[in-house]
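Dear Dr. H.,

I hope your travels went smoothly. While you were away I took the liberty of generating a structure for the chain from your last submission, since the lab meeting agenda had it listed for discussion. I wanted you to have the full record in hand beforehand rather than looking at slides cold. The sequence, exactly as received, is reproduced here:
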Amino acid sequence: MELEIRHLKLLVTVSEEGSLTAAARRLNLTQSALSHQLRDAERGLGRALFLRDSRRMVLTSAGRRLLATARAVVDELDEATRDIRESSRAPEGILRLATECYTCYHWLPAALSEFSNAFPEVDVQIVADATREPVPALLDGRIDLAIVSDAVRSPRVRLQPLFRDQLVVVLPPGHRLAGASRIEAADFADQTLITYGAPKSELTIFQEVLGPAGVKPRRWIPIEITEAIVELVAAGQGISVMANWAARPYEEAGRLVTRRLTSRGIHRQWSAATRKLKSAPPYLQAFIRALANGRKDPQSPLAALPNAPAVATIRAARPG
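The corresponding predicted structure, in token form, is as follows:
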């Protein structure tokens, strides 16, 4: 006869309890049934596992040899059983999200990896159509989470600060402005400015820097994709403004240089926006935590960004 899991559990339990009576109680068996199982195991092995006296069951040398393996097998089986039971109770659902700009979707891989391990049954969907107007999409119920830097004043929206970033001017290495420590509004007057493809009313560089100073660039080229902007700037076709984390890989590769935008710098506060619900699914808050934790991944674009302050100051500025 071959040993079975029940025999290994018996061995572990009797060794811990010290008697068949206590072990039978713990295993929800009768003492007679447990004695029968023990005899079967010993008959199959051809060796006694316990020495029986009037007060306590004592392991034999064969019992001690088998006990270490029995404990390892039983512990591993218990852990696997718990994991399977917990995963069967894992929430199922769909988490729909959007960010304020297409480049911001580069943030998501690190968060998705952590989140998927915890909630494998939840399907995360990126709703790219809501990128330009994530808050209306949130209020309409088309998405569940919006990652924003805009001011959100709706009483139906809850904001949770995530991190801060800074907009920088992006230049080709040989540009005449590359030697400056900072770039002011007036420096854009004779430049071709390449930005993300959004209206001027939604671009921080126009709303917070050029507009208040009454400055217009010589030429404005809106483009949707970060990589295309980088290629044009690197080729000397203009300069751009983008988030420091978006520009950092290209600067480290020596393709671009970055400079501070204005003497004070232009910073943005990013937050997770959700609807104020009486009962939100548990995975929604878990994804927000995973997004914040994504900064800890050295491969994440957000790795060097600071934490959000305890109280968020939301700038009325759109990325780009």
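Two observations you may find useful: The chain has a mean pLDDT of 85. The CA atoms of residues 80 and 120 lie 17 Å apart.

With kind regards,
E. W.
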